[in-house]
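Key idea: predict the complex, not the pieces.
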Amino acid sequence: MNPSMELPGYAHVYSGKVRELYAPIDPSTGATSADQLLLVATDRISAFDFILDSEIPDKGKVLTQLSLWWFEQLTDIIPNHVISTEVPEAVAGRAVLVKRLDMVPVECIGRAYLTGSGLAEYRQSSSVCGVPLPAGLTDGSLLPSPIFTPSTKAPIGEHDQPMTFAEVAAEIGMPVAERVRDLTIAILKRGNEIAADRGILLADTKVEFGFDRSRPDVDGNPSVVLADEVLTPDSSRFWPAAAWQPGRAQDSYDKQFVRDWLTSSVSGWDRSSGDVPPALPDDIVEATRAKYIEAFESLTGQTFA
Ligand code: Q0Z
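Result:
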């Protein structure tokens, strides 16, 4: 898919690493909508912090359909931003029309297992984002209970910085900080309850919340709504449960073929060189596409059409 394709009736507003953001144009005034956005998931894929030259056919559709399914599984926990899946034919299945929210300026991350930047922080301080953890944890350890490990929202290309809960509260106020913390943990728990039956572990997840000014809560404050994508392999670490073995880096449910090929001698790529990775061979692209579809089908029980 073209990185930021022309969509008649929509103005392109932002390019993410693998997704695009548009705003509907009011046909009578020509003004871009202040209350709606179109989120488009492309087939782009990242690995080792690079956007690869190769796309994975249908990845954007699979992740969009998976996110929509998760939103439905979470409606008793929190309302979401989805308005409609009636979108231009050119982005059918991969785009969602959503309510434009005032986004909470914090990355809300929940962790059920320890890995990645959380593990690095734990090794330095025995804690993550100010949450003390027991001694003896290793890469992939199940945490005693899921933890909230928020971070700053850094501009693209820069790295998010861990925040303590007190820093989040100072930025957005204690009541909202407590609400997004509790929601993040509840979403991760529900996700793991459902995924466990399907042989998938959700190590961690990043969720985004926004305020809906048009929908005051019981106290008259704007209500908090779940936004963006939720519990997809791009926002979460999915691990095959059968291969889980703390003490080493876990296999990635979706990207393992890509990582294994890129780091194998046959790719000719040196991860430490700083060079951009080469294009993927067709069989790696196809095997990776099959993994995304497998994740969708085993989680939802639906067939990916
Ligand atoms: C999401 C993103 C990208 C997709 C802003 N409901 C909302 N209201 C206001 N803003 C957003 C949302 Cl979801 C929003 N993002 C991240 C970037 C494509 C999503 F390029 N940024």
